[in-house]
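Is this the right way to post structure tokens for a design question? Let me know if I should format differently. Anyway, here goes:
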């Protein structure tokens, strides 16, 4: 897709704008940075070093001014943000893994709660700041194993340190929004919650796709810890289109959008881990699996989001169904491992083309 068309997405709001992404070296962060770069944004990033080797961020070679900084160090973080003076912030920096939160609970809580507070404290009086989009997780909800989706007004909770930290991040953001950003001239702040995101370029330990890829690369079997756990699988670009839509609306000054939002897939994408692996085999027949009989860590069995609010009030809609979500994910890894090719830009273009066919609001030129 030609750059001039890409720059017109989301009303052309991101062209030339100063954007700060925290966590830009991570999986989601690198994908949203790629998208924003293609739309002509002036990019800045604050993050730790890329968490894995290989990693998506390094493979993309983005045009971004990058700062290596732990968000738990308030003084250094504050100095960097003040010097950048962004117009919008996408806050994705976090400890993102449930299993790691069991081995490093204090670090998880510090990063996801205090780190978020450090970001918000640093931007209270930034003169040019118009919007902050804080990314949390669907696991912020108190999971009652309901068969229907959680709505934005459901109670926060979490039985593991990661989930609890994300619920707290939501509460912290709400408190800062109401306490320090409620003035008529203050920046608009929202939170966004997504389901289980998959896609090319994720090698984080303990995630099902990265477990599959590691097993295939070693010619071994992937062992499934929770084969019957149902998750709302979605391609990484789906929630990112929601985050960018929120940024667009906040930059336009739409105060009613400074709220909490769910971005989940359609009902058909809520399937078990076992079904996901079997679908992945259709694209990459080298995938073999077995069941992990030694796993004893707690993780939610069923969790689904209700995205009715985003659909009704943002005119946001998912683009790809379950088969395309899994197919595009495995295509990325096949091309990387078999042909040493990174096809992220092609997948982004295909996604935007699919969205244009659906005449979604953010890609109407």
């Amino acid at each position: 897709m030609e750059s001039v068309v890409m720059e017109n997405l989301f009303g052309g709001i991101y062209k030339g704008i100063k954007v700060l992404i925290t966590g830009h070296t991570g999986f989601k962060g690198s994908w949203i940075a790629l998208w924003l770069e293609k739309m002509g944004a002036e990019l800045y990033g604050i993050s730790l070093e890329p968490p894995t080797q290989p990693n998506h961020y390094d493979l993309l070679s983005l045009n971004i001014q990058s700062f290596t900084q732990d968000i738990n160090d308030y003084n250094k973080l504050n100095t960097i943000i003040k010097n950048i003076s962004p117009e919008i912030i996408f806050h994705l920096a976090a400890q993102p893994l449930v299993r790691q939160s069991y081995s490093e609970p204090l670090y998880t809580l510090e990063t996801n709660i205090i780190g978020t507070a450090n970001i918000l404290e640093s931007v209270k009086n930034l003169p040019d700041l118009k919007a902050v989009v804080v990314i949390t997780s669907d696991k912020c909800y108190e999971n009652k194993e309901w068969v229907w989706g959680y709505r934005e007004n459901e109670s926060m909770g979490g039985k593991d340190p990661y989930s609890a930290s994300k619920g707290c991040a939501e509460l912290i953001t709400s408190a800062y929004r109401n306490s320090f950003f409620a003035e008529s001239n203050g920046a608009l702040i929202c939170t966004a919650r997504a389901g289980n995101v998959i896609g090319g370029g994720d090698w984080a330990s303990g995630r099902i796709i990265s477990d599959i890829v590691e097993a295939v690369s070693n010619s071994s079997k992937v062992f499934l810890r929770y084969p019957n756990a149902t998750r709302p699988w979605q391609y990484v670009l789906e929630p990112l289109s929601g985050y960018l839509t929120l940024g667009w609306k906040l930059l336009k000054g739409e105060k009613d959008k400074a709220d909490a939002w769910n971005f989940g897939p359609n009902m058909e994408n809520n399937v078990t881990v076992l079904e996901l692996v079997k679908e992945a085999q259709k694209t990459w027949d080298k995938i073999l699996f077995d069941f992990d009989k030694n796993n004893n860590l707690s993780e939610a069995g069923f969790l689904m989001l209700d995205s009715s609010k985003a659909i009704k009030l943002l005119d946001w809609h998912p683009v790809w169904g379950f088969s395309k979500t899994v197919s595009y994910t495995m295509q990325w890894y096949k091309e990387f491992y078999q042909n040493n090719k990174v096809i992220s830009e092609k997948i982004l273009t295909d996604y935007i083309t699919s969205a244009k066919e659906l005449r979604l609001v953010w890609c109407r030129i």
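Format looks fine. Someone answered above. Worth noting: The chain has 13 helices and twelve strands. The radius of gyration is 19 Å.
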